[in-house]
TrEMBL record:
Similarity comment: Belongs to the sigma-70 factor family. ECF subfamily.
Pfam families: Sigma70_r2, Sigma70_r4_2
Protein name: RNA polymerase sigma factor
Stored Gene3D superfamilies: 1.10.1740.10, Winged helix-like DNA-binding domain superfamily/Winged helix DNA-binding domain (1.10.10.10)
Domain RNA polymerase sigma-70 region per the UniProt entry, residue ranges: 39-102
Top-level taxon in the UniProt lineage: Bacteria
GO molecular function term, any single one: sigma factor activity
Gene Ontology terms describing biological process: DNA-templated transcription initiation
Positions of the RNA polymerase sigma factor 70 region 4 type domain: 132-184
This protein's UniProt keywords: Sigma factor, Transcription, Transcription regulation
Protein source organism: Sphingomonas taxi
Amino acid sequence: MPPAAPSSPQAARTILVEALIRTGEEDRDAFRTVYRLTSAKLFGICLRICEDRQGAEDVLHDVYLTIWHRAGAYQPGRASPISWLATIARNRAIDWRRRHGRARTAPVEAADAMPDPAAAQDEALIADEQRARLHDCLETIEARQRGAIRSAFFGGLTYAELAAAQAVPLGTMKSWVRRGLLALRGCLDGE
């Protein structure tokens, strides 16, 4: 029987950090906890980017293999656990889309395709806290950087797609995103 849901976003984050650290030590029970706390969110990211349910399921499998092998490299002081995990999922999904030659089409409503639309309480608490912090910090950075970050990380667009949409060189787009992420990180670390 899984443990009771954490009572606060901070408690949920602490549980996830501890589970990731123990997963890095090859603790299978901790890995199950990481999966239980994050699979719905990471599947949503994969589905939104892949725009193909079977592809998203395959990518999610690859994501958790990567987490199992790389959890030892996770550093709690550098990134929130869900951000670290979401980055892995996003990168794997974009790689899948590139391999399969999929062009961006209409957005998929990931929530409609979720296996269990009722998110677990601990996942909802973590998501609410992080969404509010991220939104507040996003508003503090330059508009073009903010737009590029939103399109890349929330919309699943690649740097090349962003550069084409904004009619700027690829290097310029990468610089905008990088500077924006540095500013965002500074804001998030400042709290």
